[in-house]
Design goal:
This protein is mainly α. It is about 90% helix and about 0% strand. The protein contains two helices and no strands. The radius of gyration is 27 Å and the shape is rod-shaped. The N and C termini lie far apart (about 90 Å). The model has no long low-confidence stretch (mean pLDDT about 85).
């Protein structure tokens, strides 16, 4: 009987902690927003470098003719 009560209590606590954890994850904090901004900036920079590389490659091909 005590073992079943202990299991029920432990399961209730676990479910409560999971629900609290999920609720806390829904709101973005300033650090998460800053991280997303940094990720976007890095993606934009990568795309710019890629475009610049393609332009250099095209210019090199044109000058070799």
């Amino acid at each position: 009987m005590k073992l079943q009560l202990l299991r029920t209590l432990a399961l209730s606590v676990l479910i409560g902690m999971m629900a609290f954890g999920l609720a806390a994850c829904e709101e973005e904090g300033p650090a998460e927003q800053a991280g997303e901004n940094i990720d976007e900036a890095m993606e934009d920079a990568g795309e710019s470098v890629e475009e610049m590389g393609e332009s250099v490659e095209e210019a090199a091909e044109e000058s070799s003719y």
